[in-house]
Amino acid sequence: MNTMSPIEQTERIVSLDVIRGFSLLGIFIINMISFHSPFLYLDPYTWWKTPEDVSLYPWIDVLVQASFYPLFAMMFGYGLGIQQQRASDKGTSFYRFGIRRLLVLLGIGCIHAFLIWSGDILINYAMFGLILLAFMRLSGKGLMWLGGILFLLPQTFFSILLVLMTFADPTGVTMYTDIAALQNSVAAYASGSFSSIMEQRFQDWYMVNSPGNLIFLLLSILPMMMFGAGASKCQLLEKVRSNKKIWMILGGIMFLFGIIIKSLPLFIEQNFAYSYIQDFFGGPFLSVSYAIILSLLLLNQKIMKWSKPLASVGKMSLTNYLMQSIIGTLIFYSYGFGLYGEVTLTTGTMLAVGIYVIQVILSEIWLSKFQYGPVEKLWRVLSYGRRNVGEKGKM
C-alpha cells in the first residue's frame, strides 16, 4: 500500500507559497508591536505620542492588523486540501496522517507559546485544523458555503449587538489602557527573571485564549480554513487565469468593502465595538482580497519571477515564523537586550521590515542547499516518517 509523502517541488503551487511569504511580513509587523510594547493592555489610538507613530498606526490598523492571520489560515486550509487530494490519488488514509500532522503542530505551538512568545497562533491553527478534518469529506463548494455561513452569520450578529451597545451603554465599549497590567508586563519583560517572564507569558496567552475569547477566535479562523480547503478542492488558485475577469471584479469589491469596514474606528468612533467589527468582520474580507490580488498579479511572468524570494519565505513559513518570535523576544526581553517598552512604533516597524528582508535572503540561501526549512523538515519527519521525507542535501 502506498504511504503519504510530502509535496514535491514540481507539484507546488507557486502562488500558495508567495501568499504565505507575503502573510509573514504582515504578521511580523503586527507581532513586532507586542514584542516591544504591552500592546494587549493599551489603547492604541491614544498610546502613540510621536508624530511619526500617530501617522503610522492608522495605516497598520487598517491594512495589516487582523488581515494576515486569516490570510494565512486560508492558505493553511488550502494546503490541507492538497494533502487530502494527494492521499486520495495514492489510495492512502488522509485522516490518520492529518491528525498526526496537526498534533505535531500543536506540540510545536505549545513550545512556542509557553517558552518563547505568548502570541502564538499555531495552537489555534492545530486545534481548529482538527475540527476542520471532520468536515473535509464535504465538496469544495460545500466547504466554502459552510465557511461563509459560519463567518457571516455570527459576525453579523455580534457586530449589530455591539453597535446597539454603543447607544445603550457607551461607557461599556470604551477602550482604555490597563495601567496595572501594563506596568506588570513592562516589569516582567524588561527587567524580570526568566520565571517572572514565564508567568507573564502565560497570563498574556490566557487573556487572548481564555474560554470566553476562544469562541471568537474559532469563528474568525475556522471559517477561513474551511474557505481555503474548499478553494483547494475547487483548485481556484490553479484556475485564476481562466477566471481572470471574475476575480478582478471580486477582488476589487472585497478590497473596497474590507477597507471601508476596517476604517470604521477612524471615521465613526474609536471604541471596542467598532474595533471588533474592524478586526473580526473587516479583517477576513481584506484577507480574501489580498489573496485574489496576489494571485492575479502572479499571472504576469515578470512579477512571478520577482516573487521567487517571497515564495522561498513561504516555503519556510513555519521556520521563519518561529525565528521572528525568537529574534523579537531576544531583542526586547530581559534575557536578551532588554529593550522592552523603549522602542517607538515606527522604529519597531522598520526593524520588522529589516529582519524580514534578512529572512528573505537567508531563505533563498537555505533552499538552494536543502529542500525544506529546518522546522519544516522536523514536522515532516514526525508526520510522514523519516523514510518518506526526501531532501536535497544532508542536514
Structure description:
This protein has 395 residues and is an all-alpha fold. It is 73% helix and 0% strand. It is built from 18 helices and no strands. Helix 1 packs across helix 15, helix 4 crosses helix 10 and helix 11 packs antiparallel against helix 13. The N terminus and C terminus are likely disordered.
Q: Which short descriptors sum up this protein?
A:
395 residues, mainly alpha, 18 helices, disordered N terminus
Amino-to-carboxy terminus distance: 29 Å
Which sheet architecture does the biggest sheet show? Answer: none
Q: State the shape.
A: globular
Enumerate the spans where pLDDT stays under 50 for 5 or more consecutive residues.
1-11, 390-395
Question: How many beta-strand runs?
Answer: 0
Topology as H/E string? HHHHHHHHHHHHHHHHHH
Number of helices: 18
Average pLDDT number: 91
User: Percent helix among the residues?
Assistant: over 70%
Tell me what portion of residues adopts beta-strand conformation: under 5%
Helix vs. strand class: mainly alpha
Q: What integer value in Å does the Rg equal?
A: 21 Å
